[in-house]
Amino acid sequence: MIVSATSTVTKSSLRNIQIIVLANSPSFQIGAIADGGAGNDRIETSTYLNSADSFDTLTGGNGEDRFELLFAGLEFDSDFPDQGVVTTITDFVPGEDVLVLPLEINTAGSGGDAPITFEIVQADDDSYTDVIFSALDPAATSTETAITSTATIRLLGTTNLTIADVIQANLESSSFDFLY
Question: Looking at the chain, which runs of residues are DSSP E strands?
C-alpha cells in the first residue's frame, strides 16, 4: 500500500480488508494520493470542497475495492456552481468495485445539509466515466432562484458503469484506535 498525504491518514486491516481513511480539514487544503495495492480495500475520503485544485487521487489496486467518499464545504455560488473534478479514481472496475456516495452533503455558509443526486456520464472516447453529483441550496427561500452546485468524481479508464456500481448511504467518517 502506498499513501502520500498531508491530510490525516489512518490505515487498518480488518477481516482481510485493508482500510485507508483520508481526511482533509478545512484549514489544510492539500489533496491526498492513496494506493491500496493488491487485495480487497475500503478507501474512505473526507474532502473539504472549498479549496482550489487540491483533491484526492485514489487507486484500489487488484481486488474488490469500496470507495466511500464524504464531502463537506460545498458552496452555492451562482458565478461558480461547478466544483469540477474533486476526486479521481484510477482503476475502478464495474461489477467488482463499489463507489459509495453520501445521501447528503455538508454545505458552507448555508447552515445545513443538502440532499445530493448523481448522474453517470461516459466520455465520448471511453477514456473515463464521470459521476457528477449535485445539490440544491437548502438556504434558498421561496422567492429566490435556488442555486444547484455540482462536483465530479472521475473514474479513469472506466466504461460501462451502471447505477448498480454507485450507491448512496448514510456515511460517517471512521475512526480507529490503532495505526499500521
Answer: 2-4, 8-14, 17-23, 33-35, 40-48, 56-59, 65-72, 82-89, 98-102, 104-106, 113-122, 128-136, 148-156, 166-169
d(CA 36, CA 44): 11
Alpha-carbon span 4 to 76, nearest angstrom: 31
Is 93 among the domain residues?
Answer: yes
* Number of structural domains in the chain: 1
114 domain residue, yes or no: yes
Q: 3-state class of 163 per DSSP? A: helix
Is the Cα dihedral 150, 155, 156, 161 positive or negative? Answer: negative
64-97 pLDDT, tens digit per residue, is 999 998 887 777 888 888 888 989 999 999 999 9
Residue range(s) defining the domain that contains residue 126:
2-169
Give per-residue burial for 164-174: e unless 16+ CB within 10 Å, then b.
ebbebeebeee
Residue 176 included in any domain: no
Q: Residue 5's CB: how many other CB atoms inside 10 A?
A: 17
- The pTM score is 0.81
